[in-house]
């Protein structure tokens, strides 16, 4: 049975082979910091039987093999690391990602500008100014959820999800921003597209963006988008790492 | 090397135990819907219990053997299976020769059938080659078949002896689950009603999730949670109050409250529930579920000793010999016995 602490962190059993270590119930950088810190600690202090961990906004999901390790052992290990004073500080990289905001690349950009009462340039300024924080990846392969968007760009989700958001789409909704790694459905507003392949196929999937990374966007023109797209397809590493 | 050519893919794919390690990037492990049935078909072909095999969903599928002979076996959902025009059984290894067509009809009871090949599947290194469509909908950890796909397999070994295994009978016991993690979104009465409810699997169900038809599940305090992690077997309650049990090709994170989680040993049994068939749940503790998980692993590991050689026709019965034409041209020499 799930432990019913009212204080965080708390452990919630997910059947016999998963446990969610919760640090809060909202989207908040300090909560996500603790999730990523535990993720890093578990990676540095592994326990036999833990198969993998999945950081999300506010909780760390631990997948384990119940034949190898008991629920109590996993929870004890995780909570001892989660409450440890000497937690490692979650360190994310700083990445710069180019985006073309022309309507050809972000089919919703003009409608979004209309809804928000902004010119295209105002929207680009507002979208490229902040430093975003990658909270988690999921929903679809490599789909990155970013926090830190300017509240002036707040829009509810679309009433109906649409199919076929291209790989590289930059979308916004519900006070969040996303980078799409592969083509797929989306109920968010598609305001631009990056030529950078954030997901690379081949021997084992490779994802350019990790939870905890900090991202800045910068605008590029359609011809730059095409040049970078070609270079990316030819294998060039286009992701700028500030540090 | 012989090849299995996909004539009608139906809903078939290559599945083993799934691959872990990429869920933090949004990729679920995938793997066989029913690990026990996978273990049974693998035991019949001498494979390790978790070896990759061909998983055939509820729709019909057909394959042609090219080269060969090869040795195959079936376990899992009950259905008619033919090799050319010859009806064959699940639970027995089968010798299939060059040019023969393996035809698997629609599932009669259950949903997923496993086709194992002696020596294993060698078509494509699962770890190296992703499936062709990267639309984010299909699972990247499995090879989902399309018509005309080809899988290289090993030829059958020389022996004529076939193997047989008494396949597990379908059990009508309740599907066991551990309550939570978001139990605080539901009142006690609602949880009790959920456990007491008669459920059926809806038509709109697949490797990602089974949608359950039954009483509406009411929320105590709204249904929007800040998305958190998902495990196989989580039963989410959608905004409309309908339970959605997520399975092998699930997402990695989700934003609906999860009332309960199907335990790992019962996932396969749950996945084999036919559309429209009655389904009941029973809550167990994490500790009980872990004991059951270990029992399940033990049962899987002990399938091979239960495999037996198929009885050869007894040579004391000449009539049986003749009926089976095993003696062939020698029958004339035995005429006096019959007289």
What does this structure look like?
The complex is a heterodimer of chains A (243) and B (339). With 243 residues, chain A is α+β, with helices and mostly antiparallel strands. Residues 1-5 of chain A have low confidence and may be disordered. Chain A has helices spanning 29-44, 71-82, 109-116, 120-128, 222-233, and strands at residues 10-14, 18-22, 50-55, 59-64, 94-99, 132-137, 144-147, 162-165, 169-173, 176-179, 184-186, 189-193, 199-200, 206-207, 214-219, 240-241. An eight-stranded mixed beta sheet of chain A has the order 12-9-10-7-6-15-5-16. Chain A has a four-stranded antiparallel beta sheet with strand order 1-2-4-3. Chain A folds into two domains: 10-82, Gyrase A, domain 2 (2-Layer Sandwich); 94-241, Cyclophilin. The termini of chain A are far apart. Chain B is α+β, with helices and mostly antiparallel strands. Chain B folds into three domains: 3-164, no CATH class; 175-284, Cyclophilin-like (Cyclophilin), CATH 2.40.100.10; 314-339, no CATH class. Chain B is 15% helix and 28% strand. Chain B has helices spanning 35-44, 188-196, 267-271, 286-301, 318-324, 335-338, and strands spanning 3-8, 12-15, 53-56, 61-66, 70-78, 81-83, 86-88, 94-96, 101-104, 109-117, 143-144, 150-152, 163-164, 175-179, 199-201, 209-213, 228-229, 234-237, 243-246, 253-254, 258-262, 278-279, 281-283, 308-309. Chain B has an eight-stranded mixed beta sheet. In chain B, a hairpin with a 5-residue loop joins β18 (234-237) and β19 (243-246). The model of chain B is unreliable at 125-138 and 323-339 (pLDDT under 50). Chains A and B meet through β1, β2, β3 and β4 of A and β14, β17, β21 and α4 of B.
